[in-house]
Amino acid sequence: MVFSEATTFCFHASAQARSFTACFRWGASRLSNEVLSSGWICRAFVGRVRCLMQAMKIESAKLRASAKGLEECPSSNLPEFAFIGRSNVGKSSLINALTECKELAHTSSKPGKTQRINLFTVNDSWTLVDLPGYGYAKLSREKQGEFNREVSAYLTERENLKQVMLLVDSQIEPQGGDLSFALWLQECGVPYSVVFTKTDRGSDSKTANHSGQFRAELEAYGLEPNKIFMSSAKTKKGRGQILQWIEQQLPKKPKKKKGTAINLKWMK
Ligand SMILES: Nc1nc2c(ncn2[C@@H]2O[C@H](COP(=O)(O)OP(=O)(O)OP(=O)(O)O)[C@@H](O)[C@H]2O)c(=O)[nH]1
Ligand SMILES: [Mg+2]
């Protein structure tokens, strides 16, 4: 092929390519306009996301035991999810928000309300555990020491403990006590996740700032929680994500086998 022929061919080819591209663009824009204007793709997408995000349905939640220490905790095969954190961080309130039972766990604006290991059975298949908080200055040294011993024994020796949810107040700057607790959990090999609480209380930027600082501190200490959640017991923010994640940690229920249809007509 000589130069001129080649140029003509190139011209035709590029003209064809342009018209093909134009055709394709036109077709694609018609298609996307129609699809979008009908709302079909949006609805399908949102529906799929909602379906994936659907929180576990809470059918029942009841107090199983209120134990002074590990020895008093009834033995159980159900997976346990224990809530720990500073006094007043919102452990009992979050348990009530998750189960949608306002008075399941006792809450108070005064710190030091929960003083026992409270076990709540949910859907007869898993357990939420409300623990006494740490760092309540007004508690006598003796009492605080007793709590620490009992809670530590529970956290390190309870065989069916699946995950510790370490609650951290999103409205205050990172506290040494919370970081030390995360460090201790990691050193003991106890699986844990972090849940920032009370996100409704301050502006989004304040919440993001404090939680960001805390995450940076975790990283600086080489701490790696399994998950990090943002939550509010008041607005129920994070409820869906926490429940969905808990559900993923539960043993899978065996699927019911479809029975073979038996034809009994021949017996007549
Ligand atoms: N605005 C707001 N207040 C909250 C939230 N969670 C808890 N609170 C309030 O914080 C206070 C303490 O809540 P609790 O759930 O009793 O805290 P706790 O961690 O169980 O406390 P202790 O049992 O003393 O360790 C109460 O006045 C709650 O109403 C929240 O998400 N938003
Ligand atoms: Mg409490």
From TrEMBL:
Q: What cofactor is needed?
A: Mg(2+)
> What keywords are annotated for this sequence in UniProt?
Cell cycle, Cell division, GTP-binding, Magnesium, Metal-binding, Nucleotide-binding, Septation
Q: Which Gene3D superfamilies does the UniProt entry name for this protein? A: P-loop containing nucleotide triphosphate hydrolases (3.40.50.300)
Pfam families per the record? MMR_HSR1 (PF01926)
The Gene Ontology biological process annotation of the record reads: division septum assembly
Q: Which GO terms describe its molecular function?
A: GTP binding; metal ion binding
Q: Which residues form the EngB-type G domain?
A: 77-252
- Keyword Glycoprotein: yes or no? no
Q: Which domain of life is it from?
A: Bacteria
What does the sequence similarity comment in the record state about its family?
A: Belongs to the TRAFAC class TrmE-Era-EngA-EngB-Septin-like GTPase superfamily. EngB GTPase family.
Role of this protein: Necessary for normal cell division and for the maintenance of normal septation.
| Protein name (database record) | Probable GTP-binding protein EngB
Natural source organism: Coraliomargarita sinensis
